[in-house]
Design a protein that fits this description.
Elements: E1 17-21, H1 27-36, E2 40-45, H2 49-58, H3 67-73, E3 76-79, H4 86-95, E4 104-107, H5 118-122, E5 126-132, H6 141-145, E6 150-154, H7 160-169, E7 173-176, H8 182-209, H9 215-233, H10 241-244, H11 247-260, H12 265-281, H13 287-298
InterPro entries: 6-PGluconate_DH-like_C_sf, DUF2520, NAD(P)-bd_dom_sf, OxRdtase/DH_put_Rossmann_dom, TM1727-like_C_sf
Protein name: DUF2520 domain-containing protein
Length: about 325
Amino acid sequence: MNRTPQPDPKDRPARLTVGVVGAGRVGPALAAALQLAGHRPVAASGVSETSVRRAATLLPDVPLVPPAEVLARAELVLLTVPDDALPGLVEGLAETGAVRPGQLVVHTSGRFGTGVLDPVLRAGGLPLALHPAMTFTGTSVDVQRLAGCSFGVTAPDELRLAAQALVIEMGGEPEWIEESARPLYHAALALGANHLVTLVAEAMDLLRTAGVEAPDRMLGPLLGAALDNALRSGDGALTGPVARGDAGTVAAHVTELRKHAPGTVAGYLAMARATADRALAHGLLKPELAEDLLGVLAHGGDGTGTGPGTTDSAGEDPR
């Protein structure tokens, strides 16, 4: 992978004092990464016991203070709160005069660009949207995972160099996202990462029900290969009974899921329909096999409208 060249230490911008508003899983990790680059975390806010422990682990000796006090102490402020809480937080901080002219205010929401920071801009602050495309655990391993992590970056033109420098110093790679594209960008990441966790957890549950003692060991190589193939080949990596048009197999799957895990049926059918559409569009699913398969999916696997569905035109299993 071609990585952005690391800046020469002598060309680095001045080291900054860093504050974190919201000591969840993301903020302390990013502050710790900035500390490795020479910046100095000076304050964080967090109220839950988990936040206090997390900050103590990743940012030892950094005091926990109210949000307004974080802004009073820091030149660079990381707003790492849930998406729905961000607009109200920004407005409140700006209205109370907590934002100083020239202060860098960074949020890490994938959903929002810099528009949500307009109150910061009006107060003279410098707004940046830096979203790490990474899932966080709230432990020190997150700092290591930032190496090579892509960040969805939205920034005013005059702050693009500052945004790029901060991302690179955290070990990441900047990807520039237009303001209007932020919701779509975030939806794509959620579709891939969040839904993947659900799919894997459901698959592990089903394997346990089927008697598999180590579902993680069974799925690890399979899912690793599937992910690698998908990233390399896109739809060309599609395989399995839906892509082959094995309507009978799919119907059997749905029957078993209804018996053992009825809550998974709707998701299975939805993903199978999406897979069939993509397989058809890319010539992987034969049209003569698609009719029976789509019939199974349309009727929820109850067998209505299905034909043989498990062999190709030559009477062989088309694997």
